[in-house]
Amino acid sequence: MKPADEDRIAANLAKIMAMICIRNSRLEDLHAGTVPTTRTGDYSDVLVIDAEGREIPWLEAAHIDDAQMASLMRDIVNRLFTFHIKSDDPGFREDLDRWMAVAGRWDDPVLDQAFLDAMASLKSRPNS
Predict the structure, then answer these.
(1) Is the dihedral of CA 61, 66, 20, 112 positive or negative?
(2) 75 and 25 in contact (C-beta within 8 Å)?
(3) Residue 128 CA: distances (Å) to CA of 31, 104, 115, 122
(4) What is the pLDDT of residues 57-101, one digit of tens each?
């Protein structure tokens, strides 16, 4: 197989997995709601006021709590697991083809150098 074909297949796989395993997950619950207005464009002019009356700059506020993060990660792991287990099922593949019509319009992915660097740095760390 030509490298360009491998890249195209990997890009399509990444897009469809991102759409059905991550985007259409509990992440949608976190995305729902009112988006605050910012006049600066970077949200440095937005504050969160908590139940104690503390004013927390938007850029310093946690946007999901530990329980929400754990729930999101469980959901994503379960969806990725299901994707891999069902990837040979003809009915599942037909569903993927239909979703790919939407995901195929997304921007093509690029190699994430920061991710590769982070993975490489893990090699030098002792297992914990």
Answers:
(1) positive
(2) yes
(3) 33, 39, 20, 11
(4) 999 999 899 999 999 999 999 999 999 999 999 999 999 999 999
The answer to whether the beta carbons of residues 96 and 14 sit under 8 Å apart is no
Mean pLDDT (the chain, rounded): 92
Q: Is residue 44 within 8 Å of residue 60, measured between CB atoms?
A: no
CA distances from residue 93 to 46, 67, 74, 100 in whole angstroms, order as listed: 44, 33, 23, 10
pLDDT for position 128: 53
Residue 43 · residue 100 · CB < 8 Å: no
Distance spanning both ends of the chain, measured CA to CA: 39
3-state secondary structure of 42: coil
Provide the token pair at 110: 């690029």
Q: Where are the domains of the chain?
A: 59-87
Place of tokens 């593949």: 93
